[in-house]
Amino acid sequence: MFSKRLISSIVLVILAFVLILPGSYTLGISLFAVSCIAFNEMMNVFFADSEQNKKRSISLIGLIGIGVYYLFLMAQFEMTWMLFVIVMTFLAMMSVYVLTFPKLKAVEVIAAFFSFFYAPILLSFIYLTRNMKFGIYIVWMIFISSWICDTCAYLSGMLLGKHRLAPVLSPKKSIEGAIGGVIGSALVGALFGYFIEPVIGYHGILYIFTVIGACGAVVSQIGDLAASAIKRNYDIKDYGKLIPGHGGIMDRFDSVIFAAPMIYFLAEFFLRQAG
């Protein structure tokens, strides 16, 4: 199991470099594909006990919404149009709910829209971060704040962990591990900033990366626990079996999903403040 997990992690890191460095359509199409898989994983969880035709009707709207959203994203439409797609997807799902009543329950429509927004929309901030000023460098802070944090939290938890962070939800996670993950992410972010500062000629990027690395790490751990909470609620071990040793897209990218928008907004804030 450990070897499969390690090999999968290495492959994912390589794929991240291959897909993110060129950016543009390569990254956009890849995120679209990952989003569709994540959406389907969530729908399988929420509609596990429902009739397949109930799931099919609402899933189609979600997939169309994801497709249009990423099409607009790659075409660099204004944010107003992105919000338009999100709102229209919600209205379309509600229309199906009303027109087929009582085929669908309100909680199922809510679950479907949640599945549409959760991974697909939040993962799109990887693309938005990549396209911003210095984005080719800033985008890696998303993965430093999630994957590096996860590694540092695991190691510090093993060595120092005594106090449980969420004893009912995740008994193995400790407060010491969580703190270690934040510190580790901040330090790696600072080191990353130290090396790229002379390359981009932007004074202060070291401090910016330190702060957003720490903040992103906090949010990424919430994302990890949130995904675990849903699995606990629905009594499942993994969201899927796509990635050997990890499970599904939602199992591997749970922390990235939360870190992506946080890094984007923090980077936007600090870069604007610096002028």
Word description of this protein:
The protein is mainly α and 275 residues long. It is built from eleven helices and two strands, in the order H-H-H-H-H-H-H-E-E-H-H-H-H. The chain has two domains: 107 residues, no CATH class; 142 residues, no CATH class. Helix 2 runs antiparallel to helix 5 and helix 9 packs antiparallel against helix 11. The longest helix has 29 residues. The relative contact order is 0.13. The model has no long low-confidence stretch (mean pLDDT 90).
Question: How do you describe this structure in short?
Answer:
By secondary structure, the chain is an all-alpha fold. The protein has helices at residues 2-20, 24-46, 52-74, 79-99, 106-130, 135-138, 140-160, 175-200, 205-233, 249-252, 254-274; strands at 164-166, 170-174.
Gyration radius from CA atoms, angstroms: 19 Å
**Total tally of structural domains:** 2
Beta-strand content:
under 5%
Strand arrangement, largest sheet?
1-2
- List the helices and strands in order: HHHHHHHEEHHHH
Entry keywords:
2 domains, two-stranded antiparallel ribbon, 2 strands, 275 residues, mainly alpha
List the helices and strands and how they pair.
Blueprint lengths: L1 H19 L3 H23 L5 H23 L4 H21 L6 H25 L4 H4 L1 H21 L3 E3 L3 E5 H26 L4 H29 L15 H4 L1 H21 L1
Antiparallel strand pairs: 1-2
